[in-house]
Amino acid sequence: MLLPEAWGQRFATENCTCLLRSGFENAPLEEITATTDPDNAESRRVLKNCVLADQGLRSVYATPCSDFGMAREEWFSVATKNIAV
User: Fold this and answer.
1) Does 75 fall in a domain?
2) pTM (2 decimals)?
3) Do 53 and 75 touch, CB atoms closer than 8 A?
């Protein structure tokens, strides 16, 4: 939901990383998932840059969506290596 002039400046990646950090480090979440329009390559790229695993397609309100996810233990493994977070 960023304005086009903000695209490509890593704002979406930064926000996604902050949400992951908060969900795993400040809340007791065991897994975080995200969905996006399968035709939105940039949104899929943001989720991959945040090291969420591509889990294929799933139906959300009868609409096919790209599904991504990460488990809590994976976050702590990635965060300690400082990979994209």
Assistant:
1) yes
2) 0.82
3) no
